[in-house]
Design goal:
The chain has about 400 residues and is α/β, with parallel strands linked by helices. Helices cover about 35% and strands about 20% of the residues.
């Protein structure tokens, strides 16, 4: 299942003053409204023109320059086209298509012809959209699948030749930074540290952000320099973990095998003790910025279809995220596909993301997870626009009563 065109006309502003931006430890998850992705609505205005013979011309309105961010991942090809709007931006066009670029990569070490064909087709559509929108500046990146594939360079040459797009293969460290840049405004500044979790198709990026450096309400943070104290890249994502641990009839054993694989990779990365004491002391919180956490949030809210405005910025109890994750793991693919926020394609990969989320919630305990339907592309756009921003500072923290 893929969406050719995502909803446009979105704003990525900071939350409004009447929207809670700190962790609502005393609220039921799902009870608050995000408020972070309000649509900008304006009444149409008529252009005033001077009468003939008046010696003047109608005033011309100058539009803000247009920017584009394209992310070719292990599973999806996604594009955002936006214009600056105040201290953030407004999306004017977008595109998303499941291309499964990393399908079979774990077993063969190469990108398949079918996957490359699908990716080139999607990238050609993106190129046409960028041209139609007269994009001034852009950044087009590729991640884990192209990093790992033996024929990755060959594929990039083909993309350039057939679509005109030059893809930049970014490192895991840059990928982590861009994910943080995209959701910095969702941080609860009353905590000391936040773990930003970006579960992709081929890898999972973990970034520990020093929130103490964001607490000065007068300080403007350069968006391309978020205060990341530590980061790690796990070589497992929803596609690669699903391939490494295939589904079996005994789903409880299958799910536990997946979780153990995640624990092993965290241990190998040497990050299993990073800031764990801060989280155990209640001084940390989680931000999830991937399709896994947004799907879990949509299921928890019992949405009849996926609704970004109800999911992005939502505070979700970790216990609810884990409960939904384990429920999805216990179901068959057909039963998972019946959930309106998942669909058939995502149902095959969702459980791997559930296992990763489950383990991270266990190892870095946080009462709440903030859900972000934003990430790499949004971070790239903010960087392209050379935006600076102030992170919302709230002095009063809701009680646990």
């Amino acid at each position: 299942m893929f969406v050719e065109n995502e909803p446009c006309e979105r704003d990525y502003r900071v939350p409004a003053k009447n929207v809670r931006t700190t962790m609502p430890d005393g609220d039921m998850s799902g009870s608050g409204v995000s408020g972070d992705a309000q649509l900008e609505t304006r009444k149409p205005t008529r252009r005033r023109t001077k009468r003939r013979g008046s010696g003047g011309q109608a005033p011309q309105s100058k539009k803000a320059p247009t920017y584009a961010a394209l992310d070719l991942g292990t599973n999806n090809c996604r594009l955002l086209v936006a214009r600056p709007s105040g201290d953030s931006f407004k999306v004017i066009d977008s595109y998303s298509r499941a291309v499964r670029l990393g399908n079979g990569l774990t077993a063969t070490g190469r990108l398949s012809e079918a996957s490359m064909d699908a990716a080139v087709e999607a990238l050609t559509v993106c190129a046409k959209k960028m041209k139609a929108r007269r994009v001034k500046r852009w950044r087009c990146i590729a991640t884990e699948a192209c990093r790992k594939a033996e024929n990755g360079k060959e594929f990039l040459d083909r993309v350039k030749s057939e679509s005109g797009i030059s893809l930049e293969i970014i490192s895991p460290r840059v990928e982590s930074r861009l994910a943080v840049m995209g959701c910095l405004n969702l941080v609860d500044t009353t905590k000391d540290v936040v773990l930003v979790i970006d579960i992709g198709g081929g890898s999972t990026e973990l970034s520990w952000v020093d929130v103490r450096r964001l607490r000065n309400p007068e300080r403007t943070m350069k968006i391309h320099r978020p205060p990341i104290s530590a980061w790690a890249s796990l070589p497992i994502g929803v596609a690669t973990l699903s391939e490494r641990v295939p589904e079996i009839e005994d789903r409880a054993r299958w799910y536990e095998s997946m979780k153990q694989t995640v624990r092993d990779e965290i241990s190998k990365a040497g990050c299993d003790t990073r800031f764990t004491n801060s989280f155990k002391d209640g001084k940390g919180h989680l931000i999830g910025t991937s399709g896994t956490i947004t799907s879990l949030a949509g299921i928890h809210l019992k949405l009849p279809y996926y609704q970004r405005d109800k999911v992005d910025g939502l505070w979700l109890r970790s216990s609810d995220a884990v409960r939904v994750a384990r429920d999805m793991a216990s179901r068959s693919p057909a039963e998972r596909a019946k959930e309106p926020c998942i669909g058939e394609d995502r149902s095959k990969l969702l459980v791997a993301g559930c296992a990763i989320t489950d383990v991270l919630c266990e190892m870095w305990p946080s009462k709440m997870v903030r859900v972000a339907d934003r990430g790499l592309r949004e971070g790239m756009l903010m960087g392209l626009m050379q935006q600076s921003q102030k992170v919302n500072f709230v002095k009063e923290v809701p009680s646990d009563d």
